[in-house]
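From the shared-data thread, chain only:
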Amino acid sequence: MNENTTSRSLTLDSREESVLLFGQRDAYLRLIRESLGVRLVARGDTIQIDGNESAVDQAERAFQQLRGILRHNQQLAIEDVRTVIEVVRAGSGGADRSATAKLAIGEGGRYMRPRTDGQGRYVQAMRDNDIVICVGPAGTGKTYMAVAMAVTLLRQNLIKRIILVRPAVEAGERLGYLPGDLSAKINPYLRPLFDSLNDMMEPDQVKRYIESEIIELAPLAYMRGRTLSSAVIILDEGQNTTVAQMKMFLTRMGHGSRIIVTGDLTQVDLPPTMRSGLSDAVTRLRGIDRLAIVHLDDTDIVRHSLVQAIVKAYDGEGSPRKKS
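Structure, as tokens:
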């Protein structure tokens, strides 16, 4: 090995994981090797990666992303490998980032770029599919990037409307008990979506779009019986839908529309005996064409650094407390 090359080893959990990760007749290994320009030597449950430092770093990140997908889906497809390679080659930031990863969220050329490889996969999935379900913990940018994608498509005149939806679990979907008109009743539930919009558009523009129904904010209960065309429809806090509600929501999709569902399966507020519609959809809808399921984890958290430690602590992976 010359001075311009480096070598790293990656140890897998089991022989079974290596078989699934490498692909039939090592097809996935060959694709990674040829796409990233690295030398890969697989021995049992160990992968040795040789090449220049940048390429080795990309290959290592690719394997880690693919292992995460494998943990959630119990399988890999060639499309997964190609998407991950594209994401890691684009990088997780910097001036050389692929233009396809940028989302035009503001006037004057203001863009949002994914800050982690997982977020990069999420953006790519939203570009390539008609329905995207994104599952991940707090702080991973699930909702913010969904709204950013919707705003981008609206600015590009690829859609005519943005519809932002949330289940009102605390009110049992019976909003009549809350004081005020409909706007006042649903505002507490839709505030996070409203905040994201105001970060990407001038407040006066958001107000005009809402008044003209270019942007609609609504509780999930108000979606029944509708068919929504030429729109991006975002369902936030999807973990708090029932199976029947999730089915109802997904079937609102009309021509020229896209649906994005976000949620955190560790924060389900439904009664313990009631199955989450998000959990059910992740299992039931896997493998459907033009529908992608993206899992983010604590490595994709982009809020304050303490959020990552808190998430790990509640997941039983560590403690945010200082060592004595």
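Residues 92-100, 171-175, 318-324 have pLDDT under 50 and may be disordered.
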